[in-house]
Amino acid sequence: SSPLEFLPGRIRSLCRIPHQRLAMMLGIAVPRAVNLVGSRHISISVQKCGPTLAGAKDLASVHGRNWLAAGGIFGTAAMINPTAAVCVGSMFAAAHVTDLAVNDDLDDLFYLPRQTYNHLCGAAPNRKRVVVLGSGWGALSFVRKLDPMYFDVTIVSPRNYFFYTPLLAGVTTSTVKAHSVLEAVRQTKPMPYANFLKAECTSLDPANKLVSLEGHGISVDLPYDHLVCAVGAQPNTFGIPGVQENAMFLKELDHGLAVRHRILDRLERAMIAHAAGRMDEVRRLLSIVVVGGGPTGVEFAAEVADLMNSDLKRSFPVVADQIRLTLVEAQSDLLTMFKKSIGEHVKQHLESVGVTVRTQTMVKSVDDVSIDLNTTAGDSETMDYGLLVWVAGVGARPITKKLAAAFGQSNPRGLEIDQFLRVKGAEENTVFALGDCTVSRNPWTAQVAAQQGKYLARAFRDEEANASLPFEYCHQGTMAYVGEGKSVAVLSPPNLDTVTKGFARVSFFRSLASCPDSMLKPEHRTGVPVVTPEKKFEINVLGMSGFAVWRGVYFSKLFSYSNRFNVATDWVRNFFFGRKVAESAEIS
Fold first, then answer.
1. Which candidate in 119, 225, 264, 400 could, as Cys together with 128 as Cys, close a disulfide (CB 3.0–4.6 Å)?
2. Burial of 109 from C-beta contacts in 10 A (0-12 / 13-18 / 19+)
3. Which stretch of DSSP H or E encloses residue 270?
4. Which residues pair with 356 in a beta bridge?
């Protein structure tokens, strides 16, 4: 037997990794058997040629400028003070590794040598065609981890950018600029080694593995070997009359810009109405109604309250005191994903900053100037408004229903998937779905979509799209901004109970290192996902401390350093100079 058999499983698996990489670097075909659930086996053969000059030139053309800049900075620093240069370099390296660990991307660091070698060798001739529908959290989290030298990736979306949804409420009041939370798909990984089509999926032919697309009046059929559906969801009006025609939504970046434009437009109109002595029209124009007491509704109301209590009082002193901000929620509490006591705390805080909170109140109908309300007690009321923002929930997009019908599904909520994110009714390991377009036991949040995207990418990268372990959602916490520099945050730390039971499974340390079972040799895997206890320890952080946590976490989750720089400068600008209450572009 091999001497490695006498080593502990985790160490033995690490010892074997360099042997495989060495064989790959020598250009040798490395067959390896992956033990899947039960008796399933697949055989993977990696046929790679050696590095080429063209591959080296291509790698240098993409990263050469960054390497040259970093080398020039640290080289100059080393000439002046070598010790300081080493300290600064170590600090930046530690910060980058910490950033990878915080965002569950530390496995990318271990995959980097292999990825670099693959780039030097060039694209494999027999790459699988992977078509990804969507450009949101799930889609971008998936494609950013794929190796484009192994997979021929095509991203399809009518939106050629990703935007950071947790800061969308801030866009409506210019707390952050729209471009600060925007990440162009064509300028993020795996570009420029992937393809992007700004088009919309219209239909699917599973039998022939064809996706029908339409963009700019041109139709095209796109073949695929693997299809990943991450088309997200759309606002849900629940069939209430007048909502679709008269309300504004807050789901897309365009929605945030349109809401900002409408707020400023209503203020300017109110100024003219005030000059004409039409005070009833002033009060109607400055009545803002927000329907939905979830995180988006609460954060939008909090952002508008901040704007109302600071910048508008200075810029529109004549009409600022006429602004009425009302938050309507059908249930008895706000933020029902939090404890009841936290929901009560948020309600009291919002009321203290000028928000009228109406719980147990349902919308009956909407027209262009008023909204009809019903309370659970049976009372009816009509409320005039100048701006109605509907954030009461999301539902399936029309394309999601078409895709579901193609696989014989009829669930109106979305695509039904199994625990491996495979679409039910589709050919095995061919069609996957993740994020808000799916029906599973997981909530429709960005946190779930991002984790699903990374899980599926690891399955593609390490196990030829045939994951050996099911997806397990790890809830890390919930946060919401409530105004006046205060937030509520409920954090879920890692499960420490496994540490007290010994180091056999080392699941705690594996979670810290972002090292899933799929990265280990089959004989060293636990084969059993980590079970989350029913009563999980949670940390509640409220007030200014919660605000520090809220901003720190959201800042660390931004995709690029460019986004982080822009968002940080926006926050500093607002702190010292306030928000802008004018715009140069007309948005309909």
1. 225
2. middle
3. helix 253-275
4. 326
- Report the SS3 class of residue 109: helix
What is the longest distance spanned by two Cα atoms in the chain?
A: 94
The pair phi, psi for residue 355, each rounded to 5°, is -100, 130
Give alpha helix (H) positions in 392-499: 398-406, 446-463
**Tokens 């494999």 -> residue:** 124
| Confidence category of residue 234, pLDDT binned at 50, 70, 90 | very high
Q: Using an 8 Å Cβ cutoff, are 145 and 458 in contact?
A: yes
Spatial separation of the C-alpha atoms in residues 171 and 399, rounded to whole Å: 28
> Please, which residues have CB within 8 angstroms of residue 545's CB and are 6 or more apart in sequence?
none
Q: Is the pLDDT of residue 3 over 70?
A: no
* Residue 511 pLDDT class (50, 70, 90 cuts): very low
Q: Which of 30, 25, 16, 31 is nearest to 121 (CA)?
A: 25
Q: Range with the lowest mean pLDDT among 3-12, 377-386, 436-445? A: 3-12
> Which of 208, 188, 190, 212 is closest to 199 using CA atoms?
212
β-pair partners for 229? 133, 433
Cα–Cα dist 505/9, whole Å: 10
CB 223 within 8 A of CB 212: no
AA identity, residue 398: P
What band does 497 get if pLDDT is binned at 50, 70 and 90? very low
Strand order in the sheet with 151-156: 195-197, 151-156, 128-133, 226-229, 431-433
Distance CA 270, CA 279 (A): 9
Question: Whole-angstrom Cα distance, residue 400 to residue 133?
Answer: 11
| Stated pTM of the model | 0.81
The kind and range of the H/E element at 197 are: strand 195-197
pLDDT at 529 over 60: no
Q: How confident is the model at residue 9 (pLDDT cuts 50, 70, 90)?
A: very low
- At residue 227, what is the residue type? L
Q: Write the DSSP symbol of residue 489.
A: E
What type of residue sits at position 571? W
Average pLDDT along the chain? 82
